[in-house]
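To: structure subgroup
Subject: Chain for Friday's discussion

All,

I'm putting the inputs and outputs inline so they're searchable in the archive.
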Amino acid sequence: MGTCLCKEKREERRVRQREQQEQRRGERGSRTSDRRQRDQRHRQWRNALSTDSDIEQQAYDDPVSIEMDIKDLIRQTLKVIRTLVNNEQEPPQSLLKLNLIADKERGWLMVVKALIETVPDNDSLGPAVITLFLDECPLPSKETIHRLLFSMEFSGDLAKKKSPGWHKNACIVLGSLAEKLAGSTAVAMFSHDVQQYLIACVVNNAHIGGSYQMILFALLALEKFAQTSENQHMICRTFEQIGQPLLELETWLEDKSLESNWLAQQVGFCAQWSLDNIFVSENRQFAYESADVSGINAMLNHEDVSEYLKIGPDGLEARCDVSSFESVRCTFEAVEGVWYYEATVLTPGVMQIGLATKRSRFLNHEGYGIGDDDCSVAYDGCRQLVWYNANSTKHEHPPWKQGDVVGVLLNIPEKYVRFSLNGIPLYQKHKEFLFQLPEGDGVFAAASFMSFQQCRFNFGAMPFRFPPKNIEFRYFLIFVSLYFCQRDV
């Protein structure tokens, strides 16, 4: 499952939250003194946020106290969020309180600014938490957005100040709001100052050794603003005037000195995808036209993918930059024998990498992906889980990190799947998936991705980093072939 935050429909969650609030109010008389104090503080938050005009005159005369409490709630949420893995678990109290605070304009502004300042840049789930929180909150008004942008003082000069982590979070907020409010509001948001800020984040760091993180998330924010055509034309004109910086960023994909710089590789991928799909540059050949796929006989299937997943021109790399749980299957179906493939994770967040049949459904907006039905199984290295039929089992591997290699061994004759991380297999083989497989059903390599996650697949086009020992296996490059139309990503 993608994450508990994207499982439930918004209205269902709000109904449950109201029921929980009523239940908490009904139980106050029997709680301990400490719990009564916490509830009193909760009532103070609610009262303080009941109107926008008198917040300072309510329970907290000092707004710094509220800001500190909000930041503490954010830290609590980040601490427990990776433990919430299914739909039946209740969201943490810290998240419910943040949602309650954000119901009012003043509270929403305070929570958003606190997210920018508080979420650490090395937290693998931080970007997803920001995106999903904004996705769950009520839509802010144009006036609220204006107040946020005015208070942040965006400008080209701001890109030279603050920490890279601050800029990363700010760009995530801008991009998420632009995506949610596409249209006239996104046009109003994309003021000269905001445009100059985002472009400065890209241009000022568009050199080896710059802040790759700032480039990446500023570029993604520009991409989200460009979903509105007026903004897209404005960005394209600006890029043309300054000499299309994305062309330089695209070359990072081929730069041997950046081969293992996973952030730089993400920048190159996103720059190339944007040049192909959004910020198209004259006299530049599309990447899919120049990519050499003649030796690739198995790749990610661009006709068997949920709608928002980005697939690289060689069909071996995929990335998700939306808040839904995007999935894809490969082109080859294994029906007998022993097979193996590898996936290099470029990001350390939530992905579920494994195997699926054609019967497995991609319910990206509900947060269901590979491993969330009885027709698929997946390895989740972020939360250290193996997923099957929407149930998870804890595994002994450490959390994966950028550059780690997940191995997937499919043994159809002996009816088991075995996952490995950097050549170390899990102690337990997974057997349920193949034991229940209907006769004649084939199995595909498959994966699902949460926000800002990216992975590179190897179906045999390159030597495997960690091939299984003491077992003979096949790989897709040798035993399959592709039609010409399947190679055209």
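Points worth raising on Friday:
Residues 333 and 471 are 21 Å apart (CA to CA).
The longest strand covers residues 338-345.

D.
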